[in-house]
């Protein structure tokens, strides 16, 4: 039997070994050492309540509450008006600002332009849900605020879930809601997407939930798409001091000891094989270490190859601004900064359109 700690950059599993135990053992390591496990209690059914609804000429907008153990979180859902079987994004968004004063569902989504031009997404035939992650688990150190982590049983062990894991759980709950709808969403074409900390969340969500056909990471960097080893931007030391609550407690063991991690981030991407992953970086985002985000996609490709499909198909020299979309891992690096813009969305939707018809 293979020792997964031997050499994390060299997959030694055959496809049957990978399916029988390799994949589960790597997921287990990643959860026990980095993001933490979801508790048993998180498997309970979530109750969905449509709190508000509105129709514009082009969009059916809903504000939906999710209730579990008396704890309430929400997401907003935008579906192309009158259309069925839409492809859909679940966007895990940490800066969702609700226009609470007027509770105006239309203004709410227009205020999201900074992250996503909803009209553009809708015009291309996609539905999109925004999960307000801070309601799931506050994005703050030492927060006294309620969270689903507290509602489902307090953090107890060194491998209990952190906020990123809780946010990824919430993304999956949105898919549970899609399943209750009457064919509005094509359940075989649901993507999870996030920017930065949300990108880390999106990869983790898809690694644990096969209902996501595609995971999209926008500038997710350390503890997201980027390899931890030889990361020239953010390190495990820095990230676990600034955001300890994102992870399980075990992760601190690897401060300044990246070499001793029994895995690396390319394996998080590998867990999504043979489905689809889109990673993008920005030239001006050295904190996220674009070099290691790209390398990670290259190393992850071996897990896709196990299934007889290509991972990333891209030359040694990557062209800035070009989207490499011919494999099950797509990648681009833009001339720009740490953000997600309409030009990124358009490349992502081009890719989603392409895999959607295969
Ligand atoms: C940074 C953090 C990154 C990234 C980013 C973000 O401060 O160091 O890992 O996640 O925040 O989420 O915007």
Summarize the structure in words.
This protein has helices spanning 15-35, 105-110, 118-123, 133-136, 148-151, 163-180, 197-208, 236-242, 266-270, 290-305, 342-357, and strands at residues 47-55, 59-68, 71-80, 86-93, 126-132, 185-195, 212-218, 276-282, 329-334. It is of the alpha/beta class and 358 residues long. The protein has a single domain, classed as 3-Layer(aba) Sandwich (Rossmann fold). Strands 1-2-3-5-4-6-7-8-9 form a 9-stranded mixed β-sheet, with helices on both faces. The mean pLDDT is 94. Beta-D-galactopyranuronic acid (GTR) is lined by residues 196-197, 221-222, 234, 239, 242.
Count structural domains.
1
Find the CATH superfamily. Alpha/Beta hydrolase fold, catalytic domain
Global mean pLDDT: 94
Largest sheet: 9 strands, mixed
N-to-C order of helices and strands:
HEEEEHHEHHHEHEHHEHEH
Task: Output the radius of gyration.
Answer: 19 Å
By DSSP (H or I, 4+ residues per run), the number of helices equals 11
Secondary-structure map with pairings?
Layout: H1 15-35, E1 47-55, E2 59-68, E3 71-80, E4 86-93, H2 105-110, H3 118-123, E5 126-132, H4 133-136, H5 148-151, H6 163-180, E6 185-195, H7 197-208, E7 212-218, H8 236-242, H9 266-270, E8 276-282, H10 290-305, E9 329-334, H11 342-357
The protein binds beta-D-galactopyranuronic acid.
The site of beta-D-galactopyranuronic acid has 7 residues, from helix 8.
């Amino acid at each position: 039997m293979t020792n997964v700690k031997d050499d994390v950059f060299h997959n030694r599993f055959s496809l049957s070994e990978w399916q029988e135990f390799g994949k589960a053992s790597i997921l287990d390591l990643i959860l026990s050492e980095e993001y933490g496990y979801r508790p048993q209690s998180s498997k309970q059914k979530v109750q969905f309540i449509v709190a508000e609804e509105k129709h514009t000429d082009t969009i059916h907008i809903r504000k939906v509450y999710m209730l579990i153990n008396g704890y309430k979180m929400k997401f907003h859902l935008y579906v192309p008006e009158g259309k069925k079987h839409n492809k859909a994004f679940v966007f895990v968004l940490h800066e969702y600002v609700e226009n609470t004063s007027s509770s105006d569902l239309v203004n709410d989504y227009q205020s999201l332009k900074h992250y996503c031009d909803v009209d553009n997404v809708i015009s291309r035939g996609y539905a999109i849900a925004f999960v307000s992650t801070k309601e799931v688990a506050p994005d703050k150190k030492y927060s006294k605020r309620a969270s689903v982590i507290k509602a489902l049983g307090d953090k107890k062990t060194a491998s209990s879930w952190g906020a990123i894991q809780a946010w990824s759980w919430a993304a999956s709950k949105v898919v549970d809601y899609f399943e209750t709808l009457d064919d509005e969403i094509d359940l075989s074409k649901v993507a999870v997407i996030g920017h930065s900390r949300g990108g880390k969340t999106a990869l983790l969500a898809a690694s644990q939930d096969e209902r996501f056909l595609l995971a999209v990471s926008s500038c997710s960097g350390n503890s997201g798409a980027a390899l931890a080893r030889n990361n020239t931007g953010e390190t495990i030391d820095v990230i676990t001091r600034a955001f300890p609550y994102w992870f399980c407690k075990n992760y601190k063991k690897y401060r300044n000891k990246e070499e001793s991690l029994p895995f690396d981030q390319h394996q998080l991407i590998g867990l999504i094989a043979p489905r689809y992953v889109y990673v993008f970086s920005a030239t001006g985002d050295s904190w996220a270490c674009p070099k290691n985000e790209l390398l990670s996609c290259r190393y992850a490709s071996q897990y896709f190859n196990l299934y007889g499909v290509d991972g990333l198909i891209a030359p040694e020299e990557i062209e800035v601004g070009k989207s490499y979309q011919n494999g099950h891992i797509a990648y681009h690096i833009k001339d720009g900064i740490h953000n997600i813009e309409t030009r990124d969305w358009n490349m992502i939707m081009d890719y989603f359109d392409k895999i959607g018809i295969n």
